[in-house]
């Protein structure tokens, strides 16, 4: 049986993400601190953060983006295509993601052709 590299680090990132999301509405500064720890743990162990987690962390202040508490989410129409725009309440940074219904906007890691081998 193969051992997954960085399993302890992935567990730590998961735990820090849960704490950061919980603290987003209570204390945004503490949420940003935990978000910064997530990025630092991933960098130190040369690991990729899952795209779903990465999309919910602000690029500037690193706080967790939760709709209604720490961020605002808007759906916009730009050039005949829909976009989801997240605006961080802490620093005001905007993140825009495509959201067309007909197109496949999944990240490469989420597509079936990206999976080479499944480890149980």
TrEMBL record:
<keyword id="KW-0378">Hydrolase</keyword>
<dbReference type="InterPro" id="IPR007175">
    <property type="entry name" value="Rpr2/Snm1/Rpp21"/>
</dbReference>
<keyword id="KW-0862">Zinc</keyword>
<comment type="similarity">
    <text>Belongs to the eukaryotic/archaeal RNase P protein component 4 family.</text>
</comment>
<dbReference type="GO" id="GO:0004519">
    <property type="term" value="F:endonuclease activity"/>
</dbReference>
<keyword id="KW-0819">tRNA processing</keyword>
<dbReference type="InterPro" id="IPR016432">
    <property type="entry name" value="RNP4"/>
</dbReference>
<dbReference type="GO" id="GO:0046872">
    <property type="term" value="F:metal ion binding"/>
</dbReference>
<dbReference type="GO" id="GO:0001682">
    <property type="term" value="P:tRNA 5'-leader removal"/>
</dbReference>
<protein>
    <submittedName>
        <fullName>Jg26995 protein</fullName>
    </submittedName>
</protein>
<keyword id="KW-0963">Cytoplasm</keyword>
<keyword id="KW-0479">Metal-binding</keyword>
<dbReference type="Pfam" id="PF04032">
    <property type="entry name" value="Rpr2"/>
</dbReference>
<dbReference type="GO" id="GO:0016787">
    <property type="term" value="F:hydrolase activity"/>
</dbReference>
<keyword id="KW-0540">Nuclease</keyword>
<keyword id="KW-0255">Endonuclease</keyword>
<dbReference type="GO" id="GO:0005655">
    <property type="term" value="C:nucleolar ribonuclease P complex"/>
</dbReference>
């Amino acid at each position: 049986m193969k051992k997954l590299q960085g399993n302890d680090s992935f567990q730590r990132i998961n735990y820090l993400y849960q704490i950061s999301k919980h603290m987003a509405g209570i204390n945004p500064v503490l949420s940003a601190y935990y978000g910064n720890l997530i990025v630092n743990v991933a960098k130190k162990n040369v690991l990729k953060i899952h795209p779903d987690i990465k999309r919910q962390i602000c690029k500037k202040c690193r706080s967790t983006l939760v709709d209604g508490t720490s961020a605002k989410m808007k759906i916009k129409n730009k050039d005949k295509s829909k976009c989801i725009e997240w605006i961080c309440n802490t620093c005001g940074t905007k993140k825009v993601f495509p959201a067309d219904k007909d197109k496949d906007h999944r990240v490469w890691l989420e597509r079936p052709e990206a999976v080479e081998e499944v480890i149980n």
